[in-house]
Design brief:
This protein is mostly beta strands.
């Protein structure tokens, strides 16, 4: 029996033979959050940030309590009590947390670094919606040992920017019977109106990792998380507070020495600065001069076995902050290397900031002279304006990049918007104008649509066809059914030089549907079964067949979050021109029609355990030959100070045109001296690129958002050991806030 038939049988058994889990608690989520109201209390007494909540003022503030489970038993009372109180004075918002736990010795805390992994630890997180628009907010999370994570959230959770950094502080204590925390957030970190009396949206999350349990103050169904601002509670009592001018100046100075074989070592000294100013309570203006990103972690290498460009995520701070403002269309779905499908294309990204300051392949930097950005909200409008001037380099002309985004809130939780993009330099230009509409109906149905027109000289984009990109799509995530689909058309002359568009000249129809089962009989160890299928059909202009992908997957999620999935991925591709699959070996796949299936199994074990493992095995035909792929990895969380991981990806490929094997070894070591001093190392060995690289970063956060970085980069030929390049960089930033 073929694997796809076995998977279909498993799905049928899940539907017919497994008793569904008990119905969730009788909660009307659309109205339940309206009853969750908390009053903040003004204090004139000093609050000592020590995590003890010993000041009398804390007892004067009413507590938020009686949290409700989102997982594993939706609608049930939390197994551990949590109490949250809020105080404030003229400068700060204080959040006091008492997280009761009958077994404090079992609390899991395995990381101290800034922006730790929230999924692997006990956790408290707060959403603060300062404009109470039930769409946007700030997220602050802590673990029991005082590690911090923060983010900006927009569009009711569609966009979450975890690379945003705010000025705030926390102290925690693990005590008999649980743990406590005091969080202090300066009002100048937040954005809010100038009204004397403030009403904010707020919600709290408590995560008990050993039970894989998520508890919320304002209840949220299990198919959503804390980012669902439309279900938040209400915070009142704030009076006479001001966001402040929020003027920040952050200069940096950098010195480096580098050696690119066979050149001699060289050194240089440079500097620059960033400025941030709160123009209005809702608008922030940023300005950067001689921008530098040398402290940013290196990209994780990938092996490309497709016809299309690989997607590498943005990691640079200036472009990540407020990035959600420039989001256009539905949320992007990015490929996951350990997911069931490995040849998935990244979605179209209309504005992709990695086109600025980096070469087309991302291998070298291009200096940025200066840039400015205005982002925020004005009434019902979201606004984003960005302009960057890039220097000339190695004969390449200086270029200017502009992005303008306007979004208008409509109805209860929907929006419409416009975007304008422009790239100019060397006498050439590339411009795009687009409009989008994002509608949310009822609790679960989301409908998206957008259209974009590009404008480029005929000499730049030759050939025929239209230069328009359009998409209509929907998403329907519910407690049981999970469905999404889209239709996309992209003209042959569509040209977006500031975006990531993997393919042009196609029509793509895509649909994915699955059903979530929560078996009652296996509740103690198996949380969910989610059989699903997907089809992607691509045609060329005129309707000629190009390719089709379809799959059948059955994943199992266990109570400790161990994940197991098996399935089959089927591909049909018609190549009209030869395809160079491996440039180093000169292996070309001829034009023709190819049909091939991949059978796979993938697994990741409990990420909160001291030792966890991940792996993927795949086998099947590949074009006119065969491919065996293996991915194995492990992570050791020795303590909150020391974490290390290793992963090996191996592809054994045999084609009629030639056979070859690729190995990509990725190793990470993180040592956290404290919550403010970190050492991180990323070492990668890539046999396909014949490269061994190391990126080692030492970071001291010596005051809020002020760092000293020491970065070492080394690249060598993996075959000969010969040095390709090496650099040692020391950089210091100093934030001055007014």
């Amino acid at each position: 029996m073929q694997l796809r038939n076995i998977l279909a049988l498993l799905s049928g058994l899940a539907i017919m033979g497994v008793t569904a889990a008990a119905a969730p608690g009788a909660i009307d989520y659309e109205t339940a959050h309206l009853s969750r109201r908390l009053t903040a209390v003004r204090t004139t007494a000093a609050i000592v940030l020590d995590g003890a909540l010993s000041e009398p003022a804390w007892q004067q503030a009413p507590p938020a309590s009686h949290f409700t489970q989102n997982n594993p038993q939706e609608g049930a009372a939390a197994t551990e009590d949590t109490e949250v109180r809020i105080l404030y004075d003229d400068r700060y918002l204080y959040i006091g947390v008492v997280a009761h736990d009958d077994d404090a010795q079992a609390i899991i805390t395995n990381d101290l670094k800034k922006d730790f992994d929230p999924a692997s630890t006990d956790l408290f997180e707060v959403l603060i919606d300062t404009f109470h628009d039930e769409r946007n907010g700030f997220l602050f999370a802590i673990n029991p040992m005082g590690a911090r994570w923060d983010a900006q959230m927009s569009n009711n959770g569609r966009d979450v920017n975890s690379n945003w950094d705010g000025i705030w502080d926390v102290r925690t204590r693990i005590v008999p019977g649980g743990w406590t925390a005091e969080i202090r957030i300066p009002f100048q970190t937040l954005r809010f109106s100038a009204d004397r009396a403030q009403t904010w949206g707020v919600n709290f999350l408590r995560q008990v990792r050993r039970r894989n349990e998520a508890d919320f103050w304002a209840p949220i169904p299990r198919n959503y998380d804390l980012n669902r601002a439309s279900l938040e509670g209400t915070l009142t009592g704030l009076r006479g507070i001001r966001p402040g001018r929020d003027l920040r100046v952050k200069p940096y100075v950098l010195t480096s020495g580098d050696k690119a074989a066979p050149a001699a070592a060289a050194g240089n000294l440079q500097g620059g600065f960033d400025v941030k100013y709160g123009v209005t309570p809702g608008l922030t203006w940023d300005f950067t001069v001689n921008t530098d990103f040398s402290q940013v972690e290196a990209d994780e290498q990938q092996v490309n076995l497709t016809r299309f460009s690989l997607f590498f995520p943005e990691k640079r701070e200036f472009f990540l902050e407020n990035a959600g403002v420039f989001q256009f269309g539905p949320p992007q779905q990015l490929p996951n290397g350990l997911a069931g499908r490995t040849n998935a294309l990244a979605d179209n990204v209309l504005f992709f900031s990695r086109r600025i300051g980096l070469s087309s392949d991302g291998s070298r930097t291009i200096p940025i002279l200066a840039g400015t950005r205005l982002t925020g909200h004005v009434g019902e409008y979201g606004v984003g304006v960005l302009n960057i001037q890039q220097r000339s380099q190695n004969g390449l002309p200086a270029e200017n990049f502009t992005a303008i985004r306007v979004r208008r809130n409509v109805l209860a939780n929907s929006d419409v918007g416009l975007i304008v993009l422009n790239k100019a330099g060397g006498g050439l230009y590339n411009r795009l104008v687009g409009a989008d509409a994002n509608f949310r109906f009822f609790q679960n149905l989301n409908v998206y649509g957008y259209g974009v027109q590009s404008f480029s000289p005929q000499a730049t984009v030759a050939g025929s066809g239209h230069d328009f990109l359009g998409q209509i799509s929907y998403q329907f995530p519910s407690r049981h059914w999970d469905s999404k689909g889209s239709f996309t058309t992209i003209g042959s002359r569509f040209n977006d030089e500031i975006g990531f568009i993997p393919r042009v000249g196609i029509n793509r129809l895509q649909e994915q549907t699955g059903y979530h089962f929560r078996p009652k009989l296996t509740y103690g160890w198996l949380r969910e079964i989610f059989p699903h299928w997907q089809i992607v059909n691509i045609t060329r202009p005129g309707g000629a067949f190009d390719s089709r992908y379809y799959d059948y997957h059955v994943p199992f999620t266990f109570q400790d979050s161990t994940f197991l999935e098996a399935g089959v991925n089927s591909n049909i591709e018609r190549l009209t021109v030869p395809f160079l699959i491996n440039s180093r070996r000169g292996i070309v796949i001829p034009a023709g029609l190819y049909k091939y299936d991949e059978y796979f199994a993938t697994m990741t074990t409990n990420p909160g355990a001291p030792l966890s493992f991940s792996g993927r095995w795949g086998i099947g035909r590949f074009y006119d030959g065969y491919k065996h792929s293996y991915t194995v990895g492990g992570t050791a969380r020795v303590s909150a100070q020391l974490n290390a991981s290793v992963q090996l990806q191996r592809n054994v490929i045999a084609l009629a045109e030639g056979a070859y094997t690729t190995n990509l070894l990725t190793t990470r070591v993180n040592y956290n001296f404290s919550t403010r001093t970190f050492l991180n190392a990323l070492v990668q060995y890539n046999t396909d690129a014949r490269e061994l690289s190391a990126n080692v970063r030492f970071d001291i956060l010596y005051r809020p958002l002020s760092d000293f970085f020491l970065v070492y980069n080394d690249r060598r030929d993996s075959t000969t050991g010969a040095l390709i390049d090496r650099a040692l960089i020391a950089k210091m930033t100093y934030l001055m806030a007014f």
